[in-house]
Design goal:
It is a single chain. The protein contains 15 helices and 10 strands. The chain is α/β, with parallel strands linked by helices. The protein folds into 2 domains: 97 residues, no CATH class; 272 residues, TIM Barrel (Alpha-Beta Barrel), CATH 3.20.20.70. The strands form 2 sheets. It has an 8-stranded parallel β-barrel with strand order 3-4-5-6-7-8-9-10, surrounded by 4 helices. A two-stranded antiparallel sheet has the order 1-2. Helix 3 packs parallel to helix 5 and helix 13 packs across helix 14. The longest helix has 18 residues. It is globular. The two termini are 17 Å apart.
């Protein structure tokens, strides 16, 4: 029986859309990936029944949040914890992040899942009196906590450092100090200002990404034994490929490019990128199946699975890019991975009903509605809240 619903276009016009007969069948073998490392940056599920201020003190539904991580591990994906996908610095403060890291790391140990967790300086508010020493101390506190819990460190970009650094040498000083102290190799994270406007000019250059890249590469080369790899989220495939080719031997490139990930992970005759992606949260079954196809040398199958997910990803990550978390959580809601469409900080309201309706269509075309009947039911609930009755 066809599943049809009425969806809105810009301007208020409604049209009928019929969902595909069934979700795509993504075969995911129960074995580790062989040729690529694949992290999914995971979202958090808020507690809709917490009687607290949802904008400033939203609470986390720990059971649902940890169940989602078990789902990602069951597909063979590693979890990148307490990152921007989890609304870090955008509703998830350091106190909540510590509890999230503590709980997730324990769960990872219980199933042998891989985890890496974000360590930054978000408990240090940028301001005119903040010094480089303050930034270093903030990084040391968070790195020490993450390492103490037994998780690998993802060294996140710092808003406080971006605000107080006078030039490239300040970044080299701060990163040099932190990397000289870490116990295990870390993953650096270069997050572009399209994801966080407060990070404009990172590495000391505001309008020259090549010069900024040179600074980052100098830091990596000086401490290559302490760097597992770097994730760059610039949405610029050419810049990522250029940097990938300049990395020291043994240092990995982790793509954070949610626009061009299929080609970057597939790679070329000079190398490839591993993955640390927010979109893998939303397309996890397809991502896992595609990576297994790549392991088997079936590039055509890899392309056939991932290419239809790109329009969905580009839609979810459209400007303002930092609002992408709304689409990621809506996908989890449509697919029955959480019981509600509420977010910490009220971020469920960050995208329009037109955006969500288009997301529904693109998810269907990519074969990513796991239970089409449930997805239609939940899409209709969202439509009703916007005044569109089924």
């Amino acid at each position: 029986m066809a599943l049809t619903l009425r969806l809105p276009r810009a301007g208020g016009e409604l049209y009928e859309y019929t969902v595909g007969n069934s979700a795509a069948s993504f075969t995911v073998p129960e074995q580790p990936f062989k040729s690529r490392i694949a992290f999914s940056a995971a979202h958090v599920v808020c507690d809709p029944f917490a009687d607290t201020d949802p904008l400033n003190n939203a609470q986390i539904d720990w059971n649902a949040t940890l169940q989602y991580r078990h789902y990602l591990w069951s597909l063979g994906l590693a979890v990148a914890e307490a990152m921007d996908t989890a609304q870090r610095g955008m509703g998830l403060n350091w106190q909540h992040a510590k509890e999230l890291i503590r709980r997730s790391t324990a769960e990872a140990r219980s199933v042998g899942g891989r985890i890496a967790s974000g360590a930054g300086t978000d408990h240090l508010a940028p301001g005119p009196n903040v010094t480089l020493a303050d930034v270093e101390a903030a990084y040391e506190e968070q790195v020490g906590f993450v390492e103490g819990e037994g998780s690998q460190v993802i060294l996140m970009a710092s808003r406080a450092l971006a605000a107080c650094a006078k030039g490239p040498e300040d970044y080299e000083r701060v990163y040099g100090r932190i990397l000289s102290q870490v116990k295990q190799p870390v993953i650096l994270h270069w997050l572009g200002d399209m994801f966080d406007p407060a990070l404009a000019g990172y590495w000391g250059y505001k309008d020259d990404l090549d010069a900024a890249m040179d600074v980052c590469l100098r830091i990596i080369r000086a401490h290559k034994d302490k760097v597992d790899g770097i994730k760059i989220s610039l949405l610029d495939a050419d810049k990522e490929i250029r940097m990938r080719r300049l990395l020291p031997e043994g240092v990995n490139m982790y793509t954070g490019d949610d626009f061009n990930y299929p080609e970057l992970i597939r790679g070329d005759d000079q190398g490839y990128s591993h993955a640390l992606l927010g979109i893998f949260d939303a397309i996890a079954p397809a991502a896992a199946a595609a990576l297994h196809a790549l392991d088997a040398g079936d590039v055509d199958r890899y392309n056939a699975i991932l290419e239809p997910t790109v329009p969905l990803s580009r839609h979810i990550f459209q400007k303002p890019t930092y609002a992408y978390k709304t689409g990621v959580v809506f996908m989890a809601y449509l697919n029955g991975r959480q019981s509600h469409f509420r977010m910490i900080g009220g971020s469920e309201g960050a995208r329009s009903i037109i955006h969500l309706a288009d997301l529904f269509v693109l998810a269907d075309r990519a074969g990513l509605l796991a239970d089409p009947e449930l997805a239609v039911k939940r899409m209709n609930r969202a439509l009703a809240l916007a005044g569109i009755e089924g």
